[in-house]
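FORM 7B: Structural annotation worksheet

SECTION A. Query
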Amino acid sequence: MRLFKNAAVCMMLSFTTVCTASAQYMDLSGNNPDIQEYVEATPENWNRPIIYVFYNGEDACFSCSRAIDMIYRIYQQYYAGSCSIFEIDYSQDYQMQIDYNLSQPLSIVAVRINDGMSRGYYKIDNPQNWLDDPFYMERQITTEINNFLHL
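SECTION B. Predicted structure
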């Protein structure tokens, strides 16, 4: 009987871990008017992912502007032909704060768009912390975005 209880506890813990790990892909932005406007703007956007670069105000952090420049270089090299990019001061957009659970000075959010609908997002917080190693920063960002968007 004790073995059965331990197995049940392990199964519950495993289930909790799986649910928690997949929560980062949950998307509450499906009814976001910005997504709808993006999709309706042109037929190419119907299945074109979005990469958002969210920052928190003009003085988001000391190194945020350098990190944003690096993110744009990465975008131009790897994603310009397949994704759209938008830079947004989320301190001016409360709905975006809620939709993407934004609280850090700088975040990258990749949004999967399929058949004109948002199909989940993946958030990378504080990429400015990787500026000391640009190769690592590029590899981390591209690996995480590619894995999420299946590129």
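SECTION C. Observations
Strands lie at 50-55, 84-89, 106-114, 117-125. The helical segments are 2-22, 33-41, 64-78, 94-99, 134-149.

SECTION D. Sign-off
Analyst initials: ____
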